[in-house]
Amino acid sequence: MNPVNDTIRFENVSKFYGEVLGVNRVTLTMSPGITTLVGPNGSGKTTLMNLMTGLVQPSRGTISVLGLEPRNATEFFCNLGYCAQFDSFPRGLTGFQFVLDSLMLFGMSEEDAHHLTAEALERVQLDVDAAQRKIAGYSKGMRQKIRLAQAIAHHPRVLVLDEPLNGLDPMARAESLALFQELGRQGMHVVISSHILDEVDRIADRVVLITGGYLIAQGNIHEVRREVRDKPMQVLIRCDSPELLASKMFAVNHCVEARLHADGHGVFVRTADIDQFYRLLNDIAVEGLVRIEAVAPADDNTNAIYQYLIGSDGSAA
Amino acid sequence: MMQQSFASLIGNLRQQPWSLWWIQARRMTRIEIRRNLFTRRAWWIYFLAFIPAVIIFIHLLVDTHPAFGLSDDTEVLAGVVQLYYVRLGIFFGCLGIFSRLIRGEMIERSLHYYLLSPVRREVILLSKFFAGAVSAVVLFGAAVIADFVLMYAGFGAAGQDYMWHGPGFGQLEAYLLIVVLASLGYGSVFLLLSLMFRNPMPGAMLLLGWEAINPVMPSLLQKFSVASYLRHLMPVSVPAEGVFALLTVETEPVSAWIAVLGLLALITAVLVYSCIRIRRLEIRYTTD
Fold first, then answer.
1. Is A170 exposed, middle or buried, given 0-12, 13-18 or 19+ CB atoms closer than 10 A?
2. Exposed, middle or buried: residue A296 (CB in 10 Å: 0-12, 13-18, 19+)?
3. What is the nearest CA distance from A98 to chain B, expressed in angstroms?
4. Among partner residues B35, B110, B118, which is closest to A106 by beta-carbon distance?
5. Of A37, A83, B161, B177, which has the highest C-beta tally within 10 A?
6. Residue B110 and residue A101: Cβ atoms within 8 Å?
7. In whole angstroms, what is the distance from residue A311 CA to residue A156 CA?
8. Which residues of chain A neighbour B17 with C-beta distances below 8 Å?
9. How far apart are CA B10 and CA B22, in angstroms?
10. For residue B121, which residues of chain A lie inside 8 Å, CB to CB?
11. H or E element: which one contains A20?
12. Residues whose CB falls within 8 Å of the CB of residue B69, separated by 6 or more in sequence, listed in order
């Protein structure tokens, strides 16, 4: 496949709702895999998703999804599924009818539509009895599941999920994440916005950080963390003499903080120069005074990047 | 040059997936008819449609029906169609059905499911319109047939003779044509109003006023009225007395086929503009 036709592209896209800014000058390319949109409430995540799916049109710029545009509805929406955050449904339908009605509009035979509906319900683990009941009587978690089933039922190549973990219990969240991971592995685009950062962080291939309508970082989580050079990186070192290691670390300029782990078998070190830090750690290991068991970045995740770049108040740091 | 561009237009049209659109339109229409007719919210439209039938049924049970009263009842039936159905029943019934199709789904926040389906927006709009029209015609058509049968049933053999061998059946055909055209005409206008305004009710009230004063407007302006076209199709003229005079005032005579074609042209123009509007429609439920 042509690489251009396998990506989601935003080129200098802006969206204004009257005088209110939705997103501004967003240029972004997403390749297959799982992409997490991260940002505070009102940052423009849903606007980006609505633009991607054609529910709103850009004020400026162009968007293409796998080389397609929403204007070409037939091909575009056969390749795209969107689980929007609107928790509402057409009235009077059962879960099964809701998914079936959607599939019938694809022009497939009734038999195929029934088959795909049953398959989708199985994938989201909504049991058959529940699927035959009216959606109006569903719990929030079941409504979330049925919307997800509707979005994936036609086997799209791009799945856009706006807060898909909302309302799900921990078990259902784990099942959904496993499903997203499986879809990502199959080469699908899975674009997720979620505020449950710890969970989506585990499965995301890349992250898009957005605040106030502006894109502030994008890419692989580790790459983005490395780009945030003005924030000291935190590393956890598991060793047999954490106090000694901490004292050695304090002796150098680039180390700005050293804190013992609660279990007494490790030390968190904050360093302004990660390359010098690793060189020093090598020297300490060679000296043999401290036996180093494991070294791992402690703030190389979406949550930490979010705190560094956006801050807890939601304003870009 | 012109021939070439015409040929390319034809070629382009032929390449479109018409069969897929046809399947999608049929299925959408089926879904929408189910939503229009078989929900609890539709009860008041049933009420609007069948309340004259209930009254006529009471009249059938209570009053005597001497043969000389047949022409009076024929005039009453004509009045029911022209003054009640065209002016109120079908008007408000279509307002309920057609404004729900787009605006109602925006209020319920469920329109995005259609806009995210692989169906062209024009196909969505026209299917919804067709489903609304079928629903309105089924309800009001059945109601008019019921009114007609109940009106003449009390006259016994004279009534049957009037229905089957007299002008009765022709009048029923004309009334049904009026129901179809009124449903299409008002339906198209209310569908457009619901695309243009968050609350289509003020627009509908303006239209009601416009329809009322339209007969006294210049003939050019009379062309922009649904009721003015329908008036020319009435098989029985309604005596204009008192306040009804304004609603039944005779306008310049127009032949039936010109009235039908004129109304169809008006409906087509409104639907074309609605198709243009729906292409630009954005889902922003918070502001809608």
1. exposed
2. exposed
3. 10
4. B118
5. A37
6. no
7. 35
8. 74
9. 19
10. 73
11. strand A20-30
12. B155
CA distance A283 to A280: 5
CB contact under 8 Å between A74 and B17, yes or no, is yes
pTM, two decimal places: 0.83
Beta bridge partners of B192: none
Probe site for chain A from B30, B40, B111, B116 (most A CB atoms < 10 A): B116
In this predicted structure, the answer to whether residue A13 has a pLDDT above a threshold of 90 is: yes
- Give yes or no for a contact between B251 and B215, defined as CB atoms under 8 angstroms apart: yes
Tell me whether B33 touches chain A (CB under 8 Å). Answer: no
Q: Which candidate in A91, A105, A135, A150 is best for mutational testing of the B interface (most B CBs within 10 A)?
A: A105
CA-based nearest residue in chain A for residue B20: A107
**Per-residue pLDDT for chain B (288 aa), expressed as one digit of tens each?**
677 788 888 888 888 889 999 999 999 999 999 989 988 888 999 999 999 999 999 988 888 777 677 888 899 999 999 889 998 999 999 999 999 999 999 998 999 999 999 999 999 999 999 999 999 999 999 999 999 999 998 888 888 888 888 899 999 999 999 999 999 999 999 999 999 998 889 999 998 888 888 777 777 777 778 887 888 888 888 766 655 555 554 555 667 788 889 889 999 999 999 999 999 999 887 654
Residue partners of A158: CB distance under 8 A and separation at least 6? A8, A65, A66, A79, A80, A81, A188, A189, A191
Mean pLDDT of chain A: 87
Interface test with B, best of A77, A85, A86 (most B CBs within 10 A): A86
User: Exposure pattern of A3-32 as b/e (b: 16+ CB <10 Å)?
Assistant: eeeebbbbeebbbeeeeebbbbebebebeb
**Cβ pair B288, B202 in contact under 8 A:** no
CA distance B109 to chain A (A): 6
B160-166 long-range contacts, CB within 8 A, separation 24+: B162/B70, B162/B74
Rounded CA separation B128/B130 (Å)? 5
Rounded to the nearest angstrom, the minimum Cα separation between A78 and chain B is 6
Residues paired with residue A15 on neighbouring β-strands, in sequence order: A23
Query: Chain A contact for B287, CB < 8 A?
Result: yes
Contact (CB, 8 A) for A140 and A87: yes
- Which DSSP state fits B165? T
Asked if the Cβ–Cβ distance from B35 to A150 is below 8 Å, we say no
Pairing status of strand A266-271 against strand A255-260: antiparallel
In chain A, alpha helices (H)? 45-52, 73-78, 95-104, 110-123, 128-131, 140-152, 170-185, 197-203, 221-227, 242-250, 274-287, 302-309
A297, β-bridge pairs: A235
**Distance, first Cα to last Cα, chain A:** 40
In chain B, at which residue ranges do the beta strands (DSSP E only) sit?
none
Mark yes or no for CB contact A77/B118 under 8 Å.
Answer: yes
